[in-house]
Amino acid sequence: MKRSIALCFYFSLIALLVFGCASLPENVYRTPSTAYQDTDETFLGRGVQTLKEGQPEYTSGYLLLNNGLDAFVARARLAQLAEKSIDTQYYMIHNDVVGSLFVNQLIKAAKRGVRVRLLVDDIDQEGRDFGAAVLDSQPNIEVRIFNPFARNRGRISQYITGFGKQTRRAHNKSFTVDNQMTILGGRNIGDEYFEADPEMGFVDLDVLALGPVANQVSVSFDQYWNSELSYPISALVKKPPTDNEITQRKSEFDAFVGKLFESEYLKALRDSDLSHKLQNHQVVTEWGPGTVVADDPEKLTHDTDETRYRLTEQLKPYLEGIKDELIIFSPYFVPGKSGVAFFQKLRDRGVRIKILTNSLSSTDVGIVHAGYARYRKTLLRMGVELHELNVNLTKEQRKARKEGKIGRSKSSLHAKCFVLDRESAFIGSLNLDPRSVVQNTEIGVVFKSDTVAGSIAEFFDNNIDEAAFRLELRKSDNGAETLYWHGFVDGEMQIFNHEPYTGFWKRFGVGFMRILPIESQI
C-alpha cells in the first residue's frame, strides 16, 4: 500500500515538473440569476394551460421525440416562440450544421429580447473560446463553461495532473423555454444526434415535457448556472474579442447559416406537422405525474465513494418498486457488482428484465464494451434477457471511425431509457455505467404514463428481433459455457458463436481490455 502511494506521488511529481501548474482564474465574478417565474402569460404559458385543461394541477404533459428531425424542430420552434427566457445546458455542442442552426435560433431569440443562458461542459470546447466569447458578447446572451480546463496548459497534461477532477464532467442535457416547456434526453447538439445525414447518426430519444417538470428542470439548471464550477466565458479568454473581430465572425456565421436555408432541417422547421402544432397549441401529449432526477453539481467536488450524491439513489424507490418487468435501453451498459446484485434481487421476485445495448460492432467506445462483456454470462445465468444491436458497418463507416469520427455511425444506440411495468418511464442522459453513475453528473425525468411507457415497450417487443441479436448461454456436457448470438442477417436467422461482424484482432483487443482494472473510469 505504501509503495502504491509512493509511486502515485512520484508520477504526480514528474507530471507537475514536466507539464507545470495549470491554473484557473481566481475570484471570478458570476452574476447570480435564476429562472423567471412570472411566465404564465407568455405564449407558451397560455399554451400549457390550454393543453392542460381538465388535467390535475400536479401533472405534466409528455411527447416523445424519437426521430432527429422532430427533435430539432421542437427545439427550434420553442426558441422561436420564446418570450422571456431560454435556459439550455449541454455536454457538447458541435461546430457543424445542426450546432450552427441551434446557435442561430438562440441568437434570433436574444435579438427579440429573450434572455438566453447557455451552459456547456468544457469537454469539447478546446480551441472554441473565441467563438463562445463572440456569442457571449451579444445582448441578452450569457455563456458559461462548466468545470473548465485551465487555458495556460494543454488538456492532456491536465487529465494526468487533474485526474479525478478534469475526468469528471457534466453530462446533463436540457433545453427549457419560458420555464414552461423543456426537452430532456440523450441528444447532444450535433449532426449525428439529429439525423443530419441518412448514413450518419445515433439512434436516440428525447421527451418534450410541459408544466411542472419544466419548473423542476429550471431548479436544476439554476444550481449548475450559479455553481462555482461554472465560469463565464469572459473569465477564460485571454482577451475579449474586439468590435471588428465580432463583426467579422458574425458576418462569417451569418453567411454560413444563410447557405442552409434550403437544408432539410429548415424545411422541416417550416413545414413539419410538429412545428405547426407547437405554434397552434395543438400538441397531443400524454399527462401524468413526473419527477426530475438530477445530480447536484456538488457531486464533482466530493469523493466518488459518497453514494448520496449519485442520481441512482433518487431512482432507487422507482426501481425497487418494480413488480413485473423492467426494460432498459442503454448504449453504454456496465452494471458493476452492485448492479448485478440489484438485478438478482429483481429476478428473485420474478421480475422480467430485458436489456438492449450496443454490440461490439455498433459501439463507438470499445473499452466500455469490454467492461460490459465481463457481466454477460452472470446476467444470462440469472435469466436477464440481453440484446445487442444488430449492425454490420460498411467499409465507409468503419473508415469514418478510424479517422476519429467517434460515434458517427447511424448504427449506434444512444438512447437512455427505462420502462417500469409498462406504466412509468425514465428518459434522460444517464447511461448505466460507472462513468455516468459515479463520475459524471446527469439529469432525467421519471414519469407515470401507461400510454407512453406502453408504446416504448411495444416498440421494443415489435422490433427487437429484427434490430438486435439475442444472446444465449449454453452449457456443454463437460460444464463449459459458450455465448451464442441469434439474429437476422439479410433476412435469414443466423447463430454466431463469437461477436458478430467483428474480426479476430478487434475481439482480441477488447478481450485484453477486459483484464485491465479500469472499470471505474468507463
Short recap of the structure:
Helices cover 38% and strands 20% of the residues. It has 522 residues and is α+β, with helices and mostly antiparallel strands. Helix 5 (129-136) links the parallel strand 3 (115-121) and strand 4.
Question: What would your notes on this structure say?
Answer:
- It is built from 19 helices and 21 strands.
- With 522 residues, the chain is of the alpha+beta class.
- It has two domains: 248 residues, Endonuclease, Chain A; 229 residues, Endonuclease Chain A (Endonuclease, Chain A, 2-Layer Sandwich), CATH 3.30.870.10.
- The protein has a ten-stranded mixed sheet with strand order 11-18-17-16-12-13-14-19-20-21, with helices on both faces. A nine-stranded mixed sheet has the order 9-4-3-2-5-6-8-1-10, sandwiched between helices. The chain has a two-stranded parallel ribbon with strand order 7-15.
- Strand 16 and strand 17 form a beta hairpin.
- Helix 3 crosses helix 10.
- The chain starts with a helix and ends in a 9-residue tail after the last helix.
- The N terminus is likely disordered.
Which SSEs are present, and which pair or pack?
Layout: H1 2-19, H2 43-51, E1 60-65, H3 68-81, E2 85-90, H4 97-111, E3 115-121, H5 129-136, E4 141-146, H6 155-161, E5 174-177, E6 181-185, E7 202-203, E8 206-210, H7 212-225, E9 230-232, H8 233-236, H9 243-258, H10 264-271, H11 273-279, E10 286-288, E11 290-294, H12 311-320, E12 325-329, H13 336-348, E13 352-357, H14 366-373, H15 376-381, E14 385-389, H16 395-402, E15 412-413, E16 417-420, E17 424-428, H17 434-439, E18 443-448, H18 450-467, E19 468-475, E20 481-489, E21 492-496, H19 504-513
Parallel strand pairs: 2-3, 3-4, 7-15, 12-13, 13-14
Antiparallel strand pairs: 1-8, 1-10, 2-5, 4-9, 5-6, 6-8, 11-18, 12-16, 14-19, 16-17, 17-18, 19-20, 20-21
Helix pairs in contact: 1-6, 3-4, 3-10, 3-11, 4-9, 14-19
